[in-house]
Description:
This protein is mainly β.
Amino acid sequence: xxxxxxxxxxxxxxxxxxxxxxxxxxxxxxxxxxxxxxxxxxxxxxxxxxxxxxxxxxxxxxxxxxxxxxxxxxxxxxxxxxxxxxxxxxxxxxxxxxxxxxxxxxxxxxxxxx
Length: 114
């Protein structure tokens, strides 16, 4: 037996939470059979500024568009990149013309370590 299901009213690509989350309609199967235990679909997370974003997608089954069966809660977090320098400033002493002077600074990322 097939189970028919629907997320919101997905006749078109749907954007949620001011276009932060985008459900891609082309990735949604319209039904699943009893042999299918897991299915997947795509949601893009495209925030424009740092922060934590949350929204819910209502899930309807068996053509019942009045009462949602359950919901899928989405949470996304965007961290803005930070750089850490090993020293606060680099001071070069005065040198005669045509003499090279140099220094070394170590730059690391913060919050994006793998």
